Amino acid sequence: MKILLIEPPIMDYVGGNLRTGGLKPIAMDAVRECPPYGIYLLASILRNAGHHVVLADLIALGSNRLTRWRKDILDCGLIGI
User: Fold this and answer.
1) How far apart are CA 32 and CA 41, in angstroms?
2) Secondary-structure breakdown of the chain: helix, strand, coil percentages, each rounded to the nearest 5
3) 8 A C-beta contact, residue 10 and residue 28
4) Mean pLDDT per 10-residue segment, the chain (81 residues)
5) In sequence order, what are the residues at sequence separation of 6 or more whose Cβ sits closer than 8 angstroms to the Cβ of residue 18?
6) Residue 19, exposed/middle/buried by CB under 10 A (0-12, 13-18, 19+)?
7) pTM higher than 0.85, yes or no?
8) How high is the pLDDT of residue 23?
9) Hey, where are the domains in the chain?
10) Residues 56, 60, 63, 66: what is their CA dihedral angle, to the nearest 10 degrees?
């Protein structure tokens, strides 16, 4: 099965609206010294079980957009966030 795992950044609300432009990490994402190991460990376990895993680490990319993974979203059997 094809599985897409998404690691979203912690988003900031400004004036009741989700900030979309100029994304700056907040909370633990602002001081993260290492990648989110949990999602990478899960990906490894799933791959060892024979699944095709795609990772969308939005924190590492400094992004909040999934457009790069549009094809994967439409074509996977499971999405984990």
Assistant:
1) 17
2) 35, 25, 40
3) yes
4) 88 57 53 73 96 89 83 93 89
5) 11, 12
6) middle
7) no
8) 54
9) 2-80
10) -10
